[in-house]
Amino acid sequence: MFGLNPKDARLLIIVAIMVVAAPVLLNPFPEGSNLAQFNAGYPDLMQRFVIFGIFAIGFNILFGLTGYLSFGHAAFLGIGSYAAIWMMKLLTMNIIPGIIVSVIVAGVFSLAVGWISLRRSGIYFSILTLAFAQMCYSLAYSVLTPITGGETGLQPKVNDPRILDAATNDGVVPKTNLFGLEMTSSTEIVMGGWVFTLNAGYYVAALVMLISFYISIRIFRSPFGVMLRAVKSNQQRMNYTGLNPKPYTLAAFVISGMYAGLAGGLMVAMDTQAGADRMFWTASGEVVLMTILGGVGTLIGPVLGAGAIKYMENILSKINKDILHQWFALLPDGLEDVIVALIYPFVGKGWHLTLGLLFMLVVIFLPGGLVEGGQRIAALFKRKRKPEDARSGKSTEPAE
Amino acid sequence: MEAIILQVLNGLDKGSAYALIALGLTLIFGTLGVVNFAHGALFMIGAFCAVTLSRILTLSHTIIDETRTDFLGNPLKVDVPYVYGWFGESAGAAIIDWAVPLSILFAIPVMITLGVVMERGLIKHFYKRPHADQILVTFGLAIVLQEVIKYFYGANPIPTPAPDAFRGSFDFGAMLGFDPNIIIYPYWRIIYFVFAAIIIGGVFAFLQFTTFGMVVRAGMADRETVQLLGINIDRRFTLMFGLAAAVAGLAGVMYTPINSPNYHMGMDFLVLSFVVVVVGGMGSLPGAVLAGFVLGILESFASMREVLEVLPGINQIIIYLVAIIILLTRPRGLMGRKGVMED
Amino acid sequence: MGILEVKNVNKRFGGLQALGDVNLSVAENTCHAIIGPNGAGKSTLLNCLVGKLIPDTGSVMFDGQSVLGRSPHEINQMGISRVFQTPEIFGELSVMENMMIPCFARRDGAFRMHAYKDAGAERDIIDRAESVLEDLNMIDKREMTASSMSRGDKRRLEIAMCLAQEPRLLLLDEPTAGMARADTNNTIDLLKRIKAERDITIAIIEHDMHVVFSLADRITVLAQGTPLVEDTPDKIKGHPKVREAYLGEAA
């Protein structure tokens, strides 16, 4: 299907189904129940899942395939955001021009940064990308304020030109839309105690994510993808096989930069603001965490990693002491306090601690990330099932 | 001329901090071949050693002072630190006042222990793994350490003053024969610089003149040969990790009066220190120190008003800009060795 | 006029004259061995041929064109393939993928971005890779991860990768170094067969005289960076200068 082998096609279809059904799947707990705060099926968060999924998919094309660890990819995301918001200010609140331009601008920037940074490899490359990103961040914060809005960032204003849009006289900033379909428009479906929100913005972002995912599968399976893995494996052999590793790596860098720009543009399309914070090095570190946590070099890993981290950031961080006490209220008082005291450092404001520990555990024990974890569990079940089958087979024989 | 001296002086304290952290990073990288992203966290923990000690010293018990009354007319409750009881009031007050310098004694064993535990417990298992894995696991560790400190000390900066004697500034320009009131320099900064110079000198002397240091240097150059000579290089390298941790920790302790410590100060310094290490040349100790001071001073020059008028915003990016230029023109940094981290 | 002409090549590293006035001519479709004691400059010479080093003076011509100043991948595209002392392969990739890469290089040149094709559907590439693997009796290993193979198989794969490019000149840098006797003999047989069946020129650097005398048509003896003698294997065997170079002046 779509030029994919059956296994990849199956993966794509599964991901597509999950993404389409996400508003339902991520809201398993009825509204108003104690567990409702674990529901992740609200538009804001789901949009973040898919947008950071795109970011991580792109990062994985560079880091997963070529092994070049960039610590500055957030810069391209930020640049994409600025480009998109300027399109919305100048041209139209329709998201299409903004997203296209954000991809192009991020691509141009990543071409320039990659061209210079890729003269070095290893940690030198990491530091060069970090230096470029930090420069972008600092400049966006200070000197480039006329373009970037400095500390306050950029938002569409009522009196922006928006030359393609019809004039609005009601003094309200128009909402981002796709040919009239507003990104914020949602339909709520109430089923018993459950409320599911189907949001236009989410589905637009999800569609873009599926397309990005599809393209990344194609790249992984293409001759180009094989070359990128060859870059990671042995550049010396590549050189002596008549291949020039540089343009291959640069192409991967630019593609992943464009993915980052796309994510940045989509972010603006969903939530019309852009600020320099998005370019800070911790944001670059976050996408590294996502990719590693999910499974570097795997197809689905980065998406899982992005989902896991955004879930923790938004759900785990909301659990406070009162909620913990509520949960363990059934236990005897002393025990309740002990358990709450033990859990509390890992949730709420301390969710970064859980993230750090989880990340360390993954790097130490599961270099293949969540994907490898899943595979190991699956293998465990297969091994278990076999002896059971054999035993049940034997036990039935005498009975007959 | 005055302006130049002033900027050089201003750059010294930041440069000292960069140099100390970069020195520790390079010690670890040179001996163990590990890229330690948790090194900034060690700097931060050093700073919090100072916070902890000053908190311990000010632990108080409440007594009721019958001779004085509060505004309601009741007998006044006074918090009296335990140290007053042990050393007498004046000596106790002096000890509390000198909490930051005293923390050096407290921080050395803490940091060495922490460093050794880190090396034996975690880093050891990553010698054979790719550099990217080392970066990632120590990055994770840095997040964990940072969050642990945040949990115990909160997210806000904790002011930790220098001893009374070193608060305030002195007229450095007048001492050099310039007009008074032009080059005013805080006492603590000059102390920080002198302290950093002593530590750096100490580390170099240790590596240069002791047998231990000689073996470590030989191990840095060729680990296998040293091992073939029947020397247990691993144990020495573990101690070097402890030493590097102590250097970072002491840099943190002494930095507290300059900048109130907070839990993410380590990361802020780490990113710049890595740039410093790379500019100096991975694996070169003199390179790390040189680059630390050069970049610190350059940064302070770039924040001069005259420079900012010509090149707005240059103070924000100068370090990165210099790093990019150096890496592109001198691939191994200022004093780097061939073949280090080029895979 | 040979396919490879090395003229008056000098290379100095600081105070060390690694190569001094090296002249070498390798005739087409022969096997030319370069031997010499340790430090004779054999590897330096090889590195000058493939673009890893640039000689201080002199010229290196391959098929009438200078290779000097070209990067390794350009020189490879001219038709020179190199086998390394320790096998250089793509360890993380499967044997089949290892084989496909040189096939792509031969078809598409140094860089071509086929990002949207399916690598598994490139029939011509796969056929070529398979035919070389079959020729070298490795087809049953096609799905193995390259790094998990034995050293002998890695060497065989590296040679297969070079052959897939159909090079005109194959450079071998001590291809049997560190190998067990059986693996060495297999490699000799393989190289003999390659030499017999293909239009290919082979230049080989080797310590193992057994390998050299079973393969070479001509032998150049290098000592202290200069060629001592060049002759057929039979003449080299008894040559006094060679014995002197190998056994020291006392002999």
Oligomer: heterotrimer
Give the beta-strand count of chain C.
10
Number of strands of chain A: 4
- By secondary-structure content and strand pairing, the structural class of chain A works out as mainly alpha
Please give the count of helices of chain A: 16
Second CATH tier, the architecture of chain A = Orthogonal Bundle
Number of helices of chain C: 9
Keywords (chain A): Cell membrane, Membrane, Transmembrane, Transmembrane helix
Membrane topology (chain A): Multi-pass membrane protein
InterPro entries (chain A): ABC_transp_permease (IPR001851), LivM-like (IPR043428)
Protein name (chain A): Amino acid/amide ABC transporter membrane protein 2, HAAT family
What do you see in this structure?
The complex is a heterotrimer of chains A (400), B (343) and C (251). Chain A has a single domain, classed as ABC transporter involved in vitamin B12 uptake, BtuC (Orthogonal Bundle), CATH 1.10.3470. Helices cover 66% and strands 4% of the residues of chain A. Chain A is built from 16 helices and four strands. In chain A, the strands form two sheets. Chain A has a two-stranded antiparallel ribbon. Chain A has a two-stranded antiparallel ribbon with strand order 3-4. Chain B has 15 helices and four strands. A two-stranded antiparallel sheet of chain B has the order 1-2. In chain B, helix 1 packs across helix 12 and helix 12 packs across helix 13. Chain B starts with a helix and ends in a 14-residue tail after the last helix. By secondary structure, chain C is α/β, with parallel strands linked by helices. Chain C has a domain of 157 residues: Rossmann fold, CATH 3.40.50.300. Chain C is built from nine helices and ten strands. In chain C, the strands form two sheets. Chain C has a six-stranded mixed sheet with strand order 6-7-8-3-9-10, with helices on both faces. In chain C, strands 2-1-4-5 form a four-stranded antiparallel sheet, covered by helices on one side. In chain C, helix 3 packs across helix 4 and helix 4 packs across helix 5. The longest helix of chain C is centred in the last third of the chain and has 17 residues. Chain C is globular and about 55 Å long. The two termini of chain C are 36 Å apart. The model of chain C has no long low-confidence stretch (mean pLDDT 89).
